[in-house]
């Protein structure tokens, strides 16, 4: 996709990977609208020339706000990036609310936005949907059961709608990041990819027509999974 002059919407675009994607899309000449929950962060993005939409995508009102915010605009690129973790713990019913919040944000919201904005995307000569999943969509880690489930669900959904839209003007991309340095992963130790470098690979995939963007170390995980899915699962469950 030629990004110059295109209108893009990046959910969760005021922080982390989403912010870096938005900045790099803007740098390539796109007009970018970002969504987020923090008024302060959205104000900072507005000061940089971004359109902004405030909304919590775990709620129906938040999804409505995003849809209404791009109504009547020539949206050509939808990046479903917003995501949250979960404090879910097996046998602890008090963590089910956290699990539900994660499911609504990471899976329900992208499905709703793809569904409700598809007619807008179809109206453009060329359009792209990018669903940001995770390397954990390929093989889960035991410590993140709900998060992994949402990303695996979004991966399956993405593959299905790619087939449904194969003869249309709307291209569907899945982006699978590794562990990235963001607020969500701040408590985790170990090697992390920078949000800037992660976003650069995703934006490159948008520009060059990729169907799937395996980012950083996910390339190795995909290779292992192609050889032995069982081995990939054994590795990641202990990760």
Protein model, in words:
The chain has 239 residues and is α/β, with parallel strands linked by helices. The chain has helices at residues 16-27, 39-47, 60-69, 96-122, 145-164, 195-208, 218-227, 229-237, and strands spanning 7-10, 31-36, 51-54, 75-80, 127-132, 170-176, 212-214. A 7-stranded parallel β-sheet has the order 3-2-1-4-5-6-7, sandwiched between helices. The mean pLDDT is 96.
Give the topology, please.
Elements: E1 7-10, H1 16-27, E2 31-36, H2 39-47, E3 51-54, H3 60-69, E4 75-80, H4 96-122, E5 127-132, H5 145-164, E6 170-176, H6 195-208, E7 212-214, H7 218-227, H8 229-237
Parallel strand pairs: 1-2, 1-4, 2-3, 4-5, 5-6, 6-7
Question: Key terms for this structure?
Answer:
46% helix; 15% strand; Rossmann fold; 239 residues; alpha/beta
In short:
The protein has 239 residues and is α/β, with parallel strands linked by helices. It has 8 helices and 7 strands.
In the predicted model, the low-confidence regions spanning at least 5 consecutive residues are none
CATH fold group: Rossmann fold
Fraction of helical residues: 40-55%
At the fourth level of CATH, the homologous superfamily is NAD(P)-binding Rossmann-like Domain
Strand content: 15-25%
**Integer count of domains:** 1
Return the CATH class: Alpha Beta
Q: Order of SSEs, N→C?
A: EHEHEHEHEHEHEHH
Described by the principal axes of the CA atoms, the overall outline is globular
Largest sheet: 7 strands, parallel
> How far from one another are the termini?
36 Å
Q: Structural class of the helix and strand makeup?
A: alpha/beta
Overall pLDDT score = 96
Q: Can you count the beta strands?
A: 7
């Amino acid at each position: 996709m030629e990004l110059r002059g295109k209108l893009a919407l990046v959910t969760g675009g005021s922080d982390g990977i989403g912010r870096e994607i938005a900045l790099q899309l803007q740098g390539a000449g796109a007009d970018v609208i970002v969504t987020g929950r923090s008024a302060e962060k959205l104000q900072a993005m507005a000061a940089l020339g971004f359109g902004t939409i405030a909304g919590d995508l775990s709620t129906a009102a938040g999804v409505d706000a995003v849809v209404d915010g791009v109504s009547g605009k020539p949206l050509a690129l939808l990046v479903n990036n917003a995501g949250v973790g979960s404090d879910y713990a097996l046998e602890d019913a008090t963590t089910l609310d956290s699990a539900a919040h994660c499911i609504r944000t990471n899976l329900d919201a992208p499905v709703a936005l793809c569904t409700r904005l598809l007619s807008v995307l179809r109206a453009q000569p060329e359009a792209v949907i990018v669903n940001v999943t995770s390397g954990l969509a390929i093989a889960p880690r035991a410590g993140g059961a709900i998060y992994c489930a949402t990303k695996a669900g979004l991966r399956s959904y993405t593959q299905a709608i790619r087939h449904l839209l194969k003869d249309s003007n709307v291209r569907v991309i899945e982006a699978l990041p590794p562990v990235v340095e963001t607020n969500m992963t701040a408590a985790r130790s170990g090697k992390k990819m920078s949000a800037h470098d992660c976003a650069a690979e995703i934006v490159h995939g948008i520009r060059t027509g990729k169907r799937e963007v395996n980012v950083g170390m996910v390339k190795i995980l995909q290779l292992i999974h192609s050889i032995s899915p069982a081995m990939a699962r054994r590795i990641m469950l202990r990760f």
